[in-house]
Amino acid sequence: MVDNRLLDYIDSTIGRGYPPARIREHLIKSGWKPAEVDAAIGIAKEEMHYSEPEPEGPVKKKGGSGKKKVAVVLVALVAVLLIVLVFILPLVFPSFSVLDLFTWGISPQPPGGGIISGHNFRGNGLLKLDILNRMEDAVEISSVSVNSGSGEGECSGYTIPTVVYPDSSKGITIDCNSLEKGPGDSYSLRVTVDYKTGSTPYRETETISGVIS
User: Which segments of 69-147 are extended strands (E)?
Assistant: First the structure.
């Protein structure tokens, strides 16, 4: 089954003018499986009635000075197009860049699953999250937010940023005394972790629940 977030992302980027081939290339580099990407692109094309632009036919040959004139015109058009793409377009539309494939919309899930591998909420109000890096490169945690979702407040008191190396885990302790819960109380918390590996950002949001020990 195709991930709806991936399908929504491809719909949006195709709608903004990005070619499917470029979207596919960068999603695969970001960690999505090629089969998932191809299936989602196929569905998006079908829903949007998308068709690849037909290649332009060859320029008819002309003899003598006419052929030279065509060549000069083509060179001039290419030069103007390069100037527009390289210098003018970034100034007019600063968000029009390949980098948008990583930072606009959803962040892709990393290969091998999420980064939150476990948690423990104790009666002293301290929530411990176990962060496990299943990726091939080091992961830098940039922010962690924890919210009860019921207006009771947010937890705080962790150290950011922190780095987790490949095939390693690290515990992050968060002060949740503001939730006014104690031993035996049940809880349901929404945890959002923002992190990146290299230049690629990721976001994992997970709901954790249980009874305070």
Answer: 116-121, 126-132, 139-147
Q: Which helix (H) or strand (E) holds 101?
A: helix 100-103
Q: Which two tokens stand for residue 176?
A: 């949740």
Distances (CA, A) of 196 to 16, 23, 118, 128, 129: 25, 20, 20, 21, 18
Give pTM, 2 decimals: 0.45
User: What single string gives the DSSP state of each residue in 22-87?
Assistant: HHHHHHHHTT--HHHHHHHHHHHHHHHT--PPPPPPPPPP--THHHHHHHHHHHHHHHHHHHIIII
Nearest to 189 by CA among 100, 141, 119, 110: 119
The pLDDT tens digits of the residues spanning 31-61 come to 888 888 898 888 888 887 777 666 555 555 5
User: Is-contact 100 22, C-beta < 8 A?
Assistant: no
> What is the chain's Cα-based Rg?
25
**CB distance 133 to 164 below 8 Å:** yes
Tell me: the pLDDT tens digits for 140-167?
A: 888 787 887 665 567 765 556 788 887 7
- Partnered with residue 118 across adjacent β-strands are 130
Sheet with 200-211, strands from edge to edge, namely: 162-164, 139-147, 186-197, 200-211
**Could you tell me how far CA 55 lies from the centroid of its own chain?**
31
Percent of the chain residues topping a pLDDT of 70: 74
Which tokens is 200 given? 């690629």
